[in-house]
What we know:
- The two termini are about 30 Å apart.
- The longest helix is centred in the C-terminal third of the chain and has 12 residues, at about 145-155.
- The strands form two sheets. A four-stranded mixed beta sheet has the order 2-1-4-3, with helices on one face. A two-stranded antiparallel ribbon has the order 5-6.
- It folds into two domains: about 5-65 and about 145-160, no CATH class; about 75-130, DNA Binding (I), subunit A, CATH 1.10.30.50.
- By secondary structure, it is of the alpha+beta class.
- The chain has helices at about 20-30, 75-80, 115-125, 130, 145-155, and strands at about 5-10, 15-20, 30-45, 50-60, 95, 110-115.
Amino acid sequence: MDKKVLVLNLDHTPVAVVNVQKAIVLTLLEKATPIANFDHLRIRTVDRDFHYPAVIRLYEYKNIPYRGVMLNRVNLYKRDHMSCQYCGSAKNLTIDHVVPKSKGGKTSWNNLVTACHRCNTLKGDKTPEQMGMQLSRQPFRPTLSYFLAEYAERHAEEWLPFLEVKVG
């Protein structure tokens, strides 16, 4: 019972990821309904047999203020797939300001990338264009759905139809 369950709001927006026990309790208390199950997995009790839920939807809309994905080292590395955005290396990773702070660059999702120590040192306080360096992809602000879709591709394909983002 190590698989996670995606919880959707009444409008089908993702609001949480919970363990299967919590999902079953929400279902039994009639606070949620299962809308997708993991194939070939079942939960058996002494007197009942349940489908193993993959996605549940709440019966009532819950107003949950969206705060966005927190900008931190772990999430930045996840967004950039644990690789240097200049050369593709996965060793000695650091964080680089695309437009250096000394040139007015901000510490934001759209200005930070993962870079190996070598590329970060080579670039210094210049822009990639000034150094003739190419970013493998432009930095962007990820959404919760982006990270959930990335997780789903590896662990829970049943979630993908309920997420608006496809990981590329």
